[in-house]
Structure formats: C-alpha cells, structure tokens
Amino acid sequence: MSAPSGWFWYGSIFIWVLIGIVLQKLNFKRYRKTSEAFWFLLFVNILSSVILYFYAIYLDVQIILSWKYFVLVGSLTALEVSIYMLYFNFVRKKEAFEIEQQEMEAYHDEAQVKFEDCVPKIAAFTDSVFETFRNDPIHEPYEWCEKHCPQLGPKAKLLCNTDRNELDDYRPNEFNYIIEAAKLNNIRYINKYFNKINELLPYGGVFIACCQTSLTRKKNILKRKFFPFNYIFYAFDFFWHRVMPKLHYLRKFYFNVTKGKHRVFPHTEILGRLYSCGFEVYKEEIINKLYYVAVIKTKKPYHDKKPTYGLFIRLKRVGKNGELISVFKFRTMHAYSEYLQPYIYQKNKLKEGGKFADDFRISTWGRFLRKLWLDELPMLINLLKGEMKLVGVRPLSPHYFSLYTPEMQELRIKTKPGLLPPYYVDMPKTLEEVQASEMKYLYAYLQSPRKTDWKYFWKIIWNIVFKRKRSE
Q1: 3-class DSSP assignment, residue 282
Q2: Residues 177 and 85 in one domain
Q3: Which residues are 295's β-sheet partners?
Q4: CA–CA separation, 283 and 126 (whole Å)
Q5: Torsion sign, CA atoms 144, 145, 151, 152
Q6: pTM of structure
Q7: Which of 86, 107, 128 is the last residue of a domain?
Q8: Strand, coil or helix: 348
Q9: Are residues 136 and 62 located together in one domain of the fold?
Q10: Range(s) of the domain holding residue 54
Q11: What is the pLDDT of residues 108-141, one digit of tens each?
C-alpha cells in the first residue's frame, strides 16, 4: 500500500462529516442522557470507520490500518462525548427529565371517549359532507367556502387555508364539526394546526380535511412528462419535497424557500399525524384525485418533542419491569407510522407470524432494509446499554403489548427483551402460538438463564442460516 495522498484525507473528512449529518449524531437535542449519546456516537463513528476502511482499500493507502488512525478515531469520539456532557449538564438535564415524564404519561393516556360511541352521532353529517365533495368538487376553496358555509349550522365551522394563529379567536370546544376546504399540503406547522383543531372540538367532535398524497403526485408527474424526463423530474421532486424536510440540517433551508407550501405527504403520514394529535379515523375516500379523511377526537394530543422523522429512529418499547425503553432502528416506515398501530390492527388484524396484516406503513426502501435485517443493526446500541440481551422475546410497542394476555404481560416484563427472539425456533403462525412459544422460552429462561439462551441461540442461528427461516 502507498502513503496516503491529500485526496484521501479530503475524501475521508467529507465521508466522516456526511455520515454525521445524515445520522444527525451532533444533534444534541435528540439525546436524553450521556450514556445514550456515548453509545450512539460510538456506533456512528464505528460505522464511519468501516466505510473509510473500504475507501482506503480502494485508494490503496495504509494509514487506515495504523495505530495512529485508531487513536484519531478514539480521540474524536471522546471529544464529541465530552462536548455533549458539557451541553447536557448545563442545558438539558432538567429539560430531559421533564420530557421523559411527559412521554411516560402520554403513552399510558387512554381515550376519553370510545370511538364506537361517536359513530352513530356523526355518520349522517360526515356522509353528507363527503357527498357534497363528490357532487361539487373544490376548485376555488374560498368560493366553495362562501357557497357552503351557510348550510353547516352554528356548531360547524368551514375553514379555508386558515392560519393556525387565526384560530386563537375561537374558544375551546366551540364547534362540533370543523371542515378544512383547502389542501393540507399548504399548511405550515401542520401538527400544531391539528392540535389547535383538537382544542376547538369536544370529545367526539369531527374534523374533515383533504390533501394530495405522494402517490397521486407521483402518478401526475409520470403521466404529464415525457419519458425519461418524467422520471428525472420525479427524482428531483422526491428529493426536494420528501427528503429535504426530513434532514435536520437542510430542513430550515427547505421551509425558508417554500414557506411550507406544496408539501408532499404519504397518506400514511397524514393519518399518523392525526392519530398523534388525538384523532381516530372514521372515513377516508379518494375524490377527484384528492385524499379526504374524516376523524373523530377521542383524546388529547400527544405532544411528542422528538418525533421519529429521520433515517435513524427511536421507538418506544416495553422493557424489563414494564419500563418504556427507546429501541434504536433505521426507519423502514413512513413518518409517524408508530401512532397507527391501533388503526392497522382494527383495520387488518394480524397475519401468520403475529405481525400486522397488509401493513401499508412500510416504505419500498424499508422492505429492502427489512429483507436484509439492516434496519435492526442499531439495536446493538440497546444491547451495549444493557437494555436488551442477545436472546430474548421481541421488544413490543405498548399497543401490541396490550394484545397479550395478562399472564403473558406479567411474565414478559420479568426479563429484558432480546435481539434474537424464540420466534425463529418454533415459527408460530398466530398470536396465540407466538405467546405459547414465548411462554415456553420464558419459563425455561427463569429456571436456567444461561443454559436456555445458549440452546436457543444455536437453534435460532441454525434455522436462520441453514433453513432460511424468516419472519413474515
């Protein structure tokens, strides 16, 4: 190997900085404690070092294998952790504790009104509004509002691209029905807007809105442009409207340019945002290439200060002693999908293997990551933090955990969840069979922890590697 050239150092710096930007490792606001920052920074720096190793092989340089390089990487990691410790101790310590308490309370908050009890009261009104949309499409929102506003009655409000601050003129619980005639794509701070709508409605109140979904926009672009320019234009449009708003360091630039107008949302993200803001879906329909949805207010909004919006996410899962832990993963679902578990279960139930059937929350890129199990690679951080162990039951979301029997819930929280679940030993097909498989493992583990995990580890590896077993 030859000595490193200037191009190697320039390229290495670029790769190191780029990976840090994409994974937002220096976004200190995302960490709640020093150990979390340490393990994540270490993970990102190890990942960067592996990539630089192959980069060095490509350029035929030897510095990457020298002790000086490892000292440099270790020093950079220690420096980044030290900076975060100063930041955490002087800025975030009190705030982090308050956030943790709010998250714990919000996840255990129950609906204030049952969805089923609201449906008979709002069915006629909602169906008539959807019929109006079909018979009289919204071309000019302001003219449409002026035409239909008198028909709604005193307890209904028709909005037209209303600024969130203008809603402050109304009192809480003032309306039973609110209809937004303009597309949600043009509303800035959409979660704050949904939260304000929630405040203006009583429990059981109805909110109706529409938007152009990412799928409809894609079809329009590919249809209107000539090949191959349609795919080139769509690629730029996808990066600008879908990728840019999710990158922390480019998000401000995007919103400064667009002012929040013409944003593009998958319909999954719209539903997830609505659920996170205290609503449940009653009716949804595609009318004149627009996605219309009617939702019912069933609870207060969950004010998530750290929504899982980027490539690297933290999901709330039930850990040992019933404590909620943040499980690290690469994103495989559309943003805000984690709030849709009750909706997916109610709509599609479960399929063989105990997972949600027809889970439309998974993106195309996510299916690729899941096929290769790359999405679970960051869970090694939880293993290093001591929140998970190598072999054990899957870490479950609070909603999925609630589907288990009380006996299994009590048994599950006696141990840490694991990276390699007993599922791959028995390959159960139904939720009942999944629980039976986990119960057999847990009883054996509680009697003989090391022996049980050792036996299950090799059975799992054998089934995955040689028998090609996969979770559906």
Answers
A1: strand
A2: no
A3: 207, 281
A4: 8
A5: positive
A6: 0.67
A7: 107
A8: helix
A9: no
A10: 6-107
A11: 456 677 777 888 888 888 988 899 999 988 888 8
